[in-house]
UniProtKB/TrEMBL annotation:
Binding site for substrate: D102, G103, S104, S105, N190
Alphabetized Pfam families for the sequence: FBPase (PF00316), FBPase_C (PF18913)
Record's subcellular location: Cytoplasm
GO biological process, alphabetically ordered: fructose 1,6-bisphosphate metabolic process; fructose 6-phosphate metabolic process; fructose metabolic process; gluconeogenesis; sucrose biosynthetic process
Bound cofactor: record note: Binds 2 magnesium ions per subunit.
Protein's name in the database: Fructose-1,6-bisphosphatase class 1
Length: 332
């Protein structure tokens, strides 16, 4: 077993699949460590279905996961890097959704990138097996390829953290992640998109930028790594909030991140660790994507902070467009 222990009831096929995924994550980590020596992992390789520029490592990771899983318990394989759902084994019983390499813009800069995945019980056809509420996930997880290679996993009984032991090649359970702290002052958003955001999001960020001189009366701190897995790992570790809202740019009407293989698995892990994950208003895990690469606005993190974002959408127009000096002081 490459994952040393998974508490709770995990049947043989699911356990086998998780071990296969973890072993490919360990291979991807090794390949990243040698990037530039053996190959240029950041080299352009065209574009994927969602219009993202594909890097060599996107394609390498996708092909590594698909070939390792072929012929095993996974019937359907739904990847960010492939247009449609692929049938890996007609006799399989599971459906796996995956972002093989998340944070691709960081590959050349040696900043943490990752892999995001989720596993469902397969239905008798491909689309219905993956376009479904994330609450039906059997398990979800991510690997983060940073100073440590860490696997964060949930099988529905809390969120667990495993560190890859470089000496043995085993992911060692080091403990639970969460409950996500609520007292953090950190928020993560790509502030360069400010002018494109809906008014309630601008108001939410205005109040935090105003800090001690604004309605909230204390200062905040901002982070933006442009690697969803790294932001998630920080928030699971010390709380805070992440926002990628819809915006007025063409193609960003439903934000940037994809429901099936990014937001639903991350939302599963966040809720399992006591946090919340919404589209700004409604739980991600209750939503059903209308297409494999469909995007969704995505807000997740400390439960109290995610709830606070929703209150800004209830504010009257004059409240969200006014400078914070005229806004009510009731918002925390
Ligand atoms: O470049 P932007 O607009 O800030 O978006 C950054 C976001 O895009 C992503 O890189 C999208 O994921 P991929 O790299 O898998 O396409 C996220 O990891 C990250 O949170
Ligand atoms: Mg991604
Ligand atoms: Mg990706």
């Amino acid at each position: 077993m490459i994952i040393d222990q998974i508490p709770g009831q995990v049947d043989g096929e699911l356990r086998q699949t998780l071990d296969t995924v973890a072993s490919v994550c360990a291979q991807v980590a090794q390949r990243i460590r040698r990037g530039g020596i053996d190959e240029n992992l950041g080299a352009a390789r065209g574009t994927n279905t969602d219009g993202d520029s594909q890097k060599a490592l996107d394609v390498i990771a996708d092909e590594s996961f698909a070939s390792a899983l072929r012929g095993g318990p996974v019937r359907y394989y739904a990847s960010e890097e492939v247009e449609d759902v692929v049938e890996l084994n007609p006799a399989g019983s599971l459906a796996l959704v995956i972002d093989p390499l998340d944070g691709s813009s960081n590959i050349d800069t040696n900043v943490s990138v990752g892999t995001i995945f989720g596993i469902y019980q397969a239905k008798d056809e491909p689309v219905g097996s993956v376009l479904r509420p994330g609450r039906e996930l059997l398990t979800a997880g991510y690997a983060i390829y940073g100073p440590q290679c860490v696997l964060v996993l949930s099988v529905g009984d809390g969120t667990l953290k495993y560190v890859l032991d470089p000496d043995t090649g085993v992911f060692r359970l080091v403990g639970p992640m969460g409950p996500i702290p609520e007292e953090s002052t950190e928020y993560a958003i790509n502030a360069s998109n400010y002018r494109h955001w809906p008014a309630p999001i601008r108001a939410y960020i205005d109040d935090r930028v105003a800090g001690a001189e604004g309605p909230l009366g204390h200062d905040f701190n901002m982070r933006w790594i442009a690697s969803l897995v790294a932001e998630t790992h920080r928030i699971l570790t010390r709380g805070g909030i992440f926002l990628y809202p819809s915006d007025a740019r063409k193609g960003y009407e439903r934000g940037r991140l994809r429901m099936v293989y990014e937001c639903a698995p991350i939302a599963f892990l966040i809720e399992q660790a006591g946090g919340r994950a919404t589209d700004g208003l409604d739980p991600i895990l209750d939503a059903t994507a209308d297409a494999l690469h469909a995007r969704t606005p995505f807000v997740f993190g400390s439960a109290n902070k995610v709830g606070r974002v929703a209150t800004y959408f209830d504010l009257p127009e004059e409240e969200t467009s006014a400078l914070f000096g005229k806004r009510g002081l009731f918002r925390g």
